[in-house]
Model the fold of this input.
Amino acid sequence: MSVLEALGPPPDAAAILERVPELEPSRGLGQSPYHHLDTFGHTLEVVRRVDEELRAGTLGARVGPGRVEGLRLAALLHDVAKPVTRGELGGRVLFVAHDSVGALLVRRVCRRLGLAALPTDMAVTLTALHLKIGFMEHPEADYPPRRLALAAGPFGEELAVLSWADRLAAQGPRLKDEHIERHRRLCGRFLRASRELGPHPPPEYGGLARRLPGSPEAELGYVAALARLIAARGGGGDPLELARRLL
Done:
């Protein structure tokens, strides 16, 4: 059974841990009072909530059948870096930079598993951006709506679903109904921003393969994600060349 098959539905926890041992440290790892599950339990709940949203269509996101496995993979790996970034400050549990560190770990996992470019690209992109919808309206947000839509590129619909599932999977004692409603509104606003910038061209992994001959597919997916994130931040230069130099 591959890791994609282990994701179900329903997800097979034992098979997942066998194929992705990087998730083992998340078992029993406590989180903030906004969560009711440990980190691994939360991860599995996010995977379940993704499938629930795909059935319910609360957000109206348009996720094609060929994207579902990649979305489930992103849900599985989006918090993979929490064990290595966990800290406490003033009694608060923090996971500083677990999104960006997580994107690097996703690259390693996908390469080891020999995954294709598309699910790798989606998992890296969504892991790097999975917190951003919740903060995009802040005056000092590093990813306001338009930049976030550019960074997500062809995976905007999937990012909204993951963000919504992540919110619903955290049902701790500090959660209030208004938190959920606010996040539903933010996801809707992000989807509108993404669609206004669209249609987003599909990733062109063939061209990447010619520029990076001999690279495994997962590496092509990682480079595509990194180049898209670099391009969204601006600054000039060839994003693909900058991404290649960062390998």
The longest strand covers residues 86-89. Residues 98 and 166 are 14 Å apart (CA to CA).
